[in-house]
């Protein structure tokens, strides 16, 4: 299973949802991989932290997803297998293709040379080593997002109960459907993940109910708003490892098991 988490609007919780669902898969014994295609690297930081090297020492070099795409452009006679660009996280069963700022400068070259299917080919090989693959994407329908949608079997759309987010939702779903028709017939919109939900506030309740009334695939449960997730980010520990009994953790587990 390869699941892409995508929304063209930033700040809706893509990285949080990606990493927490992946961590739950790993905690249940599934060999799990997170592919971080967002040059900001929020998923990478969430899972790996920002460990400063000792004084006088150089920061350790780790392979990144940008290194994979650079190889795609190099026409290597004996290319390294995709597994060479995967690193282990501190959590059992959970691995990562680390993001890099270089993704931005590589994008134009990758587009001009029509490398849109290379991620799909890599994930096909990686599926022999991993049971679950989760892909975090940048907040834009760019080369990397299209590559992810072509490579995935499922798409989750975070929704943060904001009117601007709702207005963008329809275009987003049309874009996903177009990629399904043109490039990836196996792609399925698994549903809309309601994030940062405040049940006592009128606006979130109204917006979500309107989506349901329109027949859109709104998933249950809704993920509650919680300051605990900020602590989770700061400590680089997904919720299942930080506080398994927390209400947000339980909602994430229920969501994970329903997919």
Describe this entry's structure for a reader.
- There is one protein chain.
- With 259 residues, the protein is of the alpha/beta class.
- The chain has one domain (2-49, 60-258): P-loop containing nucleotide triphosphate hydrolases (Rossmann fold).
- It contains 11 helices and 7 strands.
- A 7-stranded mixed beta sheet has the order 3-4-2-5-1-6-7, sandwiched between helices.
- α1 packs parallel to α2 and α5 (118-126) packs across α6.
- The radius of gyration is 18 Å and the shape is globular.
- The chain starts with a strand and ends with a helix.
List the helices and strands and how they pair.
Elements: E1 2-5, H1 14-27, E2 32-36, H2 42-48, H3 65-74, E3 87-88, E4 94-97, H4 102-112, H5 118-126, E5 132-136, H6 143-151, E6 154-159, H7 163-182, E7 188-194, H8 202-213, H9 228-235, H10 239-242, H11 247-258
Parallel strand pairs: 1-5, 1-6, 2-4, 2-5, 6-7
Antiparallel strand pairs: 3-4
The number of domains is 1
**CATH superfamily, called what?**
P-loop containing nucleotide triphosphate hydrolases
Which strands sit side by side, in order, in the main sheet?
3-4-2-5-1-6-7
Could you say what the CATH topology is called?
Rossmann fold
């Amino acid at each position: 299973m390869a699941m892409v988490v995508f929304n063209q609007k930033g700040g809706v919780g893509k990285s949080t949802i990606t990493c927490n669902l992946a961590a739950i898969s790993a905690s249940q014994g599934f060999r799990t991989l997170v592919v971080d295609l967002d040059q900001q690297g929020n998923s990478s930081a969430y899972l790996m932290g920002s460990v400063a090297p000792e004084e006088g020492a150089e920061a350790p070099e780790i392979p990144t997803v940008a290194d994979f795409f650079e190889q795609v452009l190099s026409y290597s006679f004996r290319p390294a297998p995709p597994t060479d660009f995967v690193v282990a996280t501190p959590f059992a069963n959970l691995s990562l293709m680390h993001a890099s700022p270089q993704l931005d400068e590589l994008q134009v070259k990758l587009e001009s040379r029509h490398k849109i299917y290379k991620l799909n080919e890599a994930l096909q090989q990686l599926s022999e080593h991993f049971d679950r693959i989760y892909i975090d994407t940048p907040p834009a329908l760019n080369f990397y997002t299209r590559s992810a949608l072509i490579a995935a079997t499922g798409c989750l759309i975070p929704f943060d109960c904001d009117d601007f987010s709702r207005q963008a939702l329809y275009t987003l779903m049309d874009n996903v459907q177009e990629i399904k028709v043109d490039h990836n017939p196996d792609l399925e919109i698994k549903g809309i993940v309601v994030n940062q939900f405040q049940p006592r506030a009128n606006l979130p309740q109204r917006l979500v109910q309107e989506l349901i009334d329109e027949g859109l695939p709104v998933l249950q449960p809704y993920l509650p708003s919680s300051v605990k997730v900020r602590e989770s980010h700061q400590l680089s520990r997904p919720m299942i490892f930080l506080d398994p009994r927390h209400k947000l953790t339980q909602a994430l587990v229920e969501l994970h098991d329903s997919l």
